[in-house]
Amino acid sequence: MTVDDSRSGTAHDSARARSDARALGQAVIARGGVRHLVDAGTPVAVFLVGYQLFGTGPAVAATLTAAALLAGWRLRRGDSPKVVTAALAAVTAYSALVLFTGEGRAFFLPEIVGCAVLTVAFGATLIRGRPLSLLVCQRFQIEPSDVDKPLIRKHRRLTAAWAVMWALHVLILLPLYAADQIAALALGTTLLGKPSVLIALAASWLWIRKR
User: Fold this and answer.
1) CB distance 84 to 74 below 8 Å
2) Sign of CA dihedral 179, 180, 181, 187
3) What is residue 21's DSSP assignment?
4) Are the C-beta atoms of 9 and 179 separated by less than 8 Å?
5) What pLDDT, in 10s, does the model give residues 32-61?
6) Is residue 56 within 8 Å of 79, Cβ to Cβ?
7) Which of 34, 103, 124, 153 is deepest in the core (most CB within 10 A)?
8) Angle 198-140-35 (CA atoms, 0-180°, nearest 5)?
């Protein structure tokens, strides 16, 4: 390979990387990335401020009020009632856990447990030889039912990436929970929640489309 060929290849790779980055950004925005960040962060921010200023009881009351108002706004905007109800139920369950334990950090415990369960779920399917990402794609008819070895290898890498992502969530959030760092937990769960999952979904879609 000549120097010119090498430079041409490098330029091509750089252009392709920029194109993939733009496509990823557009996919995240198209799927409501900013809105999801606001929706996910609002109850957490309200809880954090309420807890720091007034304690668990007022924080839970303020959080449930904010979640109910946000749910009403989502419904008026035309969001799915099932999705809205599930989100409101989750905030209610988190708040109930705070009241039950009397600890502010308990608000973030379900997030950590959920990430741990997902880590095991994705990792276990790798051991079984049926990558979870492939099963999900087949369920939604994104991938065919009859697959070859290259496609399985591709989904093994994709499933491993998801397992690592969920494991990183646990490794970051669990020490903060153990140290009772509620402000850091609020920031971590907001950034590592819907936004990171949305980015991972968009990146996975781009990866699946490459043949």
Assistant:
1) yes
2) positive
3) H
4) no
5) 556 666 777 889 999 999 999 999 999 999
6) no
7) 103
8) 25
Dist CA 15 CA 21 (whole Å): 10
DSSP per residue over 55-100, as a string? Answer: -HHHHHHHHHHHHHHHHHHHHHTT--HHHHHHHHHHHHHHHHHHHH
Q: How far apart are CA 181 and CA 34, in angstroms?
A: 26
Q: Write down the mean pLDDT value for the chain.
A: 83
Whether the CB-CB separation of 75 and 81 falls below 8 Å is answered with yes
Among 171, 148, 167, residue whose Cα is nearest residue 159: 167
Query: Could you tell me how many helices (H) and strands (E) the chain has, helices first?
Result: 9, 0
Q: What is the pLDDT of residues 148-204, one digit of tens each?
A: 888 889 999 999 999 999 999 999 999 999 999 999 999 999 888 877 888 888 888
**pTM for the whole thing?**
0.80
Which residues, including other chains, have CB under 8 Å from residue 61's CB and lie 6 or more apart? 50
- Which residues, 6 or more positions from 60, have their beta carbon under 8 angstroms from its beta carbon? 47, 50, 95, 98, 99
Q: How far apart are CA 48 and CA 101, in angstroms?
A: 17
SS3 166: helix
Of 122, 114, 107, 119, give the one whose Cα is nearest residue 176: 107
Quote the tokens at residue 199. Answer: 């980015």
Q: Are 110 and 185 in contact (CB under 8 A)?
A: no
